[in-house]
Structures are given as structure tokens and as C-alpha cells.
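Batch job 17 of 40 flagged for manual review because the log was empty.
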Amino acid sequence: MAAYGLYTHIASNKFRSMLLLAGLFLLIYVLVFAGALLAEVMINGDGTVQYYLAAASADLIKALPIATIGAAAWIVIAYFFHQTIIDAVTGGGDVTRQQQPRLYNLLENLCISRGIPMPKLKIMDSDALNAFAAGLNRRQYSITVTSGLMRALNDQEIESVLGHELTHIRNGDVQLMVVAVIIAGVVGFFGELFFRMFTNLSWNSSGGGWSSSSSSSSSSSSDSKSKGSGGGAVIIVIVAVALILLAWLLSQVVKLALSRSRELLADAGSVELTKNPDAMISALRKIEGRGELPGATSAVMELCVDNPREGFADLFATHPSVESRVHALVQYAGGHDPGPLALPSDTADEPNGPPAEPEDGPTPPPLPGPWGRAEDAGRIRPGGPWSRS
């Protein structure tokens, strides 16, 4: 269904996001199937391709309830403890109106103007310029702002950043992104587990099968049998490794697709809240290239206003470039782009002008004629060897 306005774009994006999350969850079963293939090869290295596929399919059916319960348990644990984990990684802490009246009032005014429940406000002590929202329900919603952002941005720009994060909460982006990061983490965890299982396999040249490299193996097959059966195991191992790599790659692509499409909508939502596209543009220009949070994991950076960590050829970048986001605000919101902005801290260590010439003594008088300026001709400096008696 085509989307024409901001709210239809949001509704359309939610529908596509739910489909992507469902596909992301299915990748867990792909990994289970790949693990079953490797397990069958380890158990019996003399089978054919058809045998391994049939045995792994049967294993998958048996493992479906266990895999589903395990993934659900992972999500439940993250549901209750993800904010605690994020705070431990970033060092963010709750603040009250008395501690940060300026920031608290800006956020409260935005919430009151649109009837939005007030999320928790957190401050992270960092010179980086960034902010992010987190939480899976009303009791957990929070917005974390760095101290560097508060120092560098004026009230209107901070209000725009807060509006950006509130839009993520209003649109349900925070829940989807947290769940996507959790599921992608499950895929990455089991993908690494099965890949390590594969690296521990070694080919038994005498017996024509695969066995664990940590255990000794004995051959009970004839040479003719090993020649006929070893090829199936090799093909299955290749297929299993390809499935593991494909599942991991697709999990990253789905996660990025969720993130990139939502940043533009959050920028537009901030403008709708504040009615000030220029403040959002100038905030992005100031944040540009200054948002790196030291020690933060990639999962936390994916939640931020801007993520300066770019992937290969921008393929795995979690956010659209600031240039494209500013261009969208100029084109669709009527904002004005001032171009890249320098902060006072960027020029604090630079000299204000050329260094002064050292003075070694009295300066000689200007000479008339070709060695001096015309207006100095005939001018005699009092005192010195050139003075009149």
C-alpha cells in the first residue's frame, strides 16, 4: 500500500517492520537446521546428502519447541534487564527536575503539548554529542542525553533532539529496535556456536568421515566405501556453513533496514512536535561526526541519534548520512541548511592570529624613497642618530 503522508508512512513502516521481525525470528530455525546438519555429520560421516537432509529435518522438527522456548526466554530476560545492561555499559543515571531543570522542562513541555507520557530522563557523562531512547513499555521508556550534547546545543536544538527520541517512542521504534537487536543477538550467538563446532571438525582421511579434532577416531570402513560416502559429508558441511553465514548476514540486513528507515521518520516527527526544522538541521550538523560513545557496544550505537560507525562502503551503516537527513528536512520541511558547523571546542586550541614578531630593541625610523613608504618620506623620528640637533 502506497504511503503519502507522515502518518501513513509510519503505519506502512510498522507493517513492514513486523514482517521483517517475523523473518528475523525464522532465521533462528535456519540456524537450528544448520546445527542439525553439522551434528549429523559428526555422528555419522558415511551418509549421503539425502540422508543428512532427512535426518536434519527430523531433528529440526524435534528441536522446534526447544528453540522457540529458548529464544522466548532470551527475549523475556532482555525485556526486564535490557535497560540495566544499557546503563551499565553507558554509565547513564536518572536525573530529576531539581538536578537538570533546563533539560527536564524542555522534555516535559514537549510531552504535555502532545499528551505523551513523560519518559525517564538520564544523563551520560561524555563529551560525545548524542542521545538515545530505550524501553519496551511505558514504565521502562527513557531518554538518555550526553553531557556534551547539553553543552554544545542551545535550547531549541536540544528540544529537537528530544523530539526526535520522543518520536521513536511514539512510533514504537524503540520496542522494535530492542527486539530486533535481541533476536539478532540470538542469531549471532548460535551462529558463532555452530561455526566453532564446524572449526572443531576434522576430516578422517583413513575412515572417510568427520570427527571432532579433540578426540581420536578409528577407521572401520573400506577404502571403496569411504570414497563413495565422504563426498556427501563434505557437501553437507559446506551447505551448513553457507546457511550460518546467510542467517547472520540477513539478520544484520534486517536490523539495518529497521533502523535506517526510522531515522528519517523520527526527524520528521521532531519537526512536527517543535515546528522548527532549522533547529533539527542545526542539531544534526553539530552532532555530525561527534557522536562516538567510548566503550558503547554496537547495539547501543544503533539506538542513538547518529551512529558515526560506518560499515564497508556504507553498506552496514545503521543510520542514513547526516547529509541525506538534512536534505530531506530542507526538501520536505522547508528548513535551511547552514552546512557543516564548527563548535567552540573545535577552535579552542587554534591560535587567533599570526604570532607576534619578537622585539629586540627600538625600531629604526622608516626610510624615505624606495626603501620606505611615500607618506614617511621626510618624517624624522625624534632621538637617535637620525634626529636633528
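Reviewer: the log was empty due to a logging misconfiguration, but the result itself is present. The mean pLDDT is 76. Unflagging and moving on to job 18.
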